[in-house]
Write a structure and sequence with these properties.
One of its GO terms (cellular component) is extracellular space. The chain has 245 residues and is α+β, with helices and mostly antiparallel strands. Helices cover 31% and strands 19% of the residues. The chain contains six helices and eight strands. It has a three-stranded mixed sheet with strand order 2-1-3, sandwiched between helices. The protein has a three-stranded antiparallel sheet with strand order 6-7-8, with no helix packed on it. The longest helix has 19 residues, at 108-126.
Length: 245
């Protein structure tokens, strides 16, 4: 499980760096687990050189490690029914065993837009209406042969509740500037650490049941127009290949 955590963390940091490279002050919200799970699912198929390329991107996030996870991630393979795609039984067995992914055929050839709407409705249902239009118009057409879709949804209450009456305006540091925003307030003993190498503090806010937590990284200071998290990425940068012990 430690190898899985390390690999997924490396992949997440690398992807975050790519997503924010054109605007390193913008808010970025994405699910590394959702993306890496989709990629590792595909890695069950390609052999030899192609497989090595997948593993290089994923920092050897091997599919077999995902069987240790107690986490519901809903995935589905959608090949077209008007163009024969033959899947090896080992591949289908692997996607079912490690990802609980179902195989469903759809009509991209003659009914692509309706298929797109069906996919969007499936995602909307799985995310409790939070994601309504995953695939925009013209994103798939008769040339589409296969779509891999997954949906991840998480909602939970804090283990230690914030009370609305304590919410107040406080200064918020936005790069080199400050602005007043509404902030929640809580006075409790919570896990808090400091990483000198990164010059940042780490706060853990557990959710109810304490199986999941939100981890907040707060830089000690911001010296330029960056997010202040660049040192975190550099410090926790993992080598492309993790040991296979």
């Amino acid at each position: 499980m430690d190898r899985l955590t390390a690999a997924n963390s490396a992949f997440a940091l690398n992807l975050f760096k790519k997503l924010s490279q054109n605007n390193n002050t913008a808010n970025v919200f994405f699910s590394p687990l959702s993306i890496s799970s989709a990629l590792t699912m595909v890695s069950l198929g390609p052999p030899n050189k192609s497989l090595l390329q997948w593993l290089f991107v994923l920092y050897i996030l091997l599919p077999c490690l995902l069987k240790d996870m107690d986490f519901q991630l809903i995935m589905v393979l959608l090949p077209t029914d008007s163009y024969p795609l033959w899947f090896l039984q080992d591949f289908l067995a692997g996607t079912q065993k490690f990802y609980r992914a179902e195989l469903a055929t759809v009509d991209f050839q003659y009914n692509s837009d309706n298929t797109r709407k069906q996919i969007n409705q499936w995602v909307k249902d799985q995310t409790e209406g939070k994601i309504c239009d995953l695939l925009p118009e013209h994103s798939i057409d008769k040339r589409t042969k296969l779509v891999l879709v997954n949906a991840i949804y998480f909602r939970a209450d804090w283990a230690e509740k914030f009370q609305d009456k304590f919410t107040m305006e406080m200064p918020f540091r936005l790069n080199m500037e400050k602005k007043m925003v509404n902030m929640m307030f809580l006075k409790k003993k919570l896990p808090l650490g400091h990483i000198p190498e990164c010059r940042c503090r780490v706060l853990e806010l557990p959710y109810e049941g304490k199986e999941f937590s939100m981890m907040i990284l707060l830089p000690d200071d911001i010296e330029d127009s960056s997010t202040g998290l660049e040192q975190v990425i550099l410090t926790f940068w993992f080598p492309p290949f993790l040991p296979l012990k």
